[in-house]
Amino acid sequence: MKSRSAPVIAAAVAVVSVLLVSTAARADEIRVMTSGAGAAAYLALVPEFERATHHTLETDAISTGVGADAIPARVRRGDPVDVVILARAALDDLIADGLIVAGSRVDLARSAIGMAVRAGAPTPDIGTVDALRRLLLRAKSVAYSASVSGTYLTTELFPRLGIATEMAGRSIRVEREPVGNLVARGEAEIGFQQISELRAVKGITLVGPLPGDAQRVTVFSAGIAAASKHPDAARALIAFLTSPAGIRAMRDSGLDPIGQ
Questions:
Q1: In this structure, are strands 83-87 and 142-145 parallel, antiparallel, or unpaired?
Q2: Beta-sheet strand order (sheet of 190-194)
Q3: pTM for this structure?
Q4: How far apart are CA 128 and CA 174, in angstroms?
Q5: What share of the chain is helix, strand, coil (3-state, %, to 5)?
Q6: Is 80 exceeded by the pLDDT of residue 4?
Q7: Is 165 exposed, middle or buried (CB count within 10 Å of its CB: 0-12, 13-18, 19+)?
Q8: Where is 190: in which H helix or E strand?
């Protein structure tokens, strides 16, 4: 038996215990806001969690939210929510503002940025940073999200590669839908977003992750809203996300689970 079997079993027992205690108390409706990177894994777990606990989940899965539609903005204006799944840095800001319960944050998974082309299009080489740079300079149109990955590309990667000026005229900032949708429709030659978000879109080919030190890995975390009406049920959901079933769903969606 592997040395880590006992801790894994103990963790699974703890998760089940939390779920049973929560269920025994009462079944609640849990409101969840999740960013797009964690949405596929979370949504895959919804039926299993609801069967196990009899709680129900009311979900806002936001691929790209900006301005008043962004998760932090919605939490700050008091939209009802129990569990928030968001990039760790953004969740920490909400904790600092007293909007997420201090100490409730649980790091779920690491998420890498990927690149996609339309299904059937030639698959370009992005195996090295130099190859990626050459591709970007050749591309007629490049789509990226208005959230974490897109901010990194435009404010850090493109300037570091010395192509910020060249990219400005051919870039499309996507605010209201997954980047992959534009690529699938042929409105952008290539697209960048979290791999887990690209994998959920039909009609595109995931070329791969950004190479080498061009990559930026983001940790996504879950926390309980300070205004949650059902904190025990919210805690049970977060425990379920880190259970073996949650880890499997995260891995299947293209995330790198932290609690494996």
A1: unpaired
A2: 171-174, 142-145, 190-194, 113-118, 204-209
A3: 0.85
A4: 26
A5: 45, 25, 30
A6: no
A7: exposed
A8: strand 190-194
Tokens representing 144 are 């990226």
| Cα gap 11→57, rounded to integer Å | 23
User: Which two three-digit tokens encode residue 239?
Assistant: 């425990």
**What is the pairing mode between strands 190-194 and 56-62?**
unpaired
What is the dihedral sign for C-alpha 11, 17, 20, 21? negative
Distances (CA, A) of 109 to 9, 26, 215, 250: 20, 29, 16, 7
Percentage of the chain beyond pLDDT 90 is: 80
Please provide the average confidence, as pLDDT, over all residues in the chain: 89
State how beta strands 113-118 and 218-224 pair: unpaired
CB count in 10 Å sphere of residue 156: 13
Rounded CA-CA distance 254/150 in Å is 18
Q: How far apart are CA 63 and CA 239, in angstroms?
A: 23
Q: How many helices (H) and strands (E) does the chain have?
A: 12, 11
Q: What is the pLDDT of residues 140-164, one digit of tens each?
A: 999 999 888 999 999 999 999 999 9
Give, in order, the Cα–Cα distances in Å from 29 to each of 97, 99, 145, 222.
25, 20, 31, 17
Report how far Cα 123 is from the mean position of its chain's Cα atoms: 25
Which amino acid type is present at position 180?
Answer: G
SS (H, E, C) 52-108: HHCCEEEEEEECCCCHHHCHHHHHHCCCCCCEEEEEHHHHHHHHHCCCECCCCCEEE
